[in-house]
Amino acid sequence: MSDCNYWKIRAQTYLSERKIPTEGLYVCTEDPEYANRIILPWYDKEEKLVYWNARTMSKNNKIIRYLKPKKADQESALFMTEWPAPGTKIYIMEGEFDAISLQIIGLIGCACGGKYLSDSQIELIRSYEPVLVFDADEAGLKALIEVGISLLERGFPKVSYVRPPLAYKDWNKFLQCRDNQTVKTYIEKFEKRFTTMTPDMLKAKHL
Hints:
The protein is an alpha/beta fold. The protein contains seven helices and ten strands.
């Protein structure tokens, strides 16, 4: 695209406001269904495109935030900012922007595209050390507990978690409002081991 192209400028502005780099991302300009959306590609370990999400740039709350490709199997894929060596710690959350936000501060972000991990997605992370970092809202807490229990039951030897500060809905919002080092320091300070006792502790604190 030309530097003066309307869609390029709009996409760059939208992503810049969220501190998201444009590298590797696309913008749809013509398709009547996907126009005005940022296209976020998902690649497997062999760097093959296996899925993508289309996130609207509109501020209209009545417009669906994400549109998925037709006949695509999201539950067999993950959005990884990179596929690291086995044993590496990866940070699992809902959306791609949150995953990219953690990549910016030097961590490995992994988005599952929802509030649970499918059986196939669990096997994709089998060789890594998962840290659960879902949103700060009620749904994020529920996802954290359910996914954490599921990973323990599936035999993961170590599962950890960190919740975003309550003042920020998710990690991208946290990054927008604070600097990179603050976000990274917060994660390093408050990361905890997820055990069989964690669900009861989290529920008690939530009350």
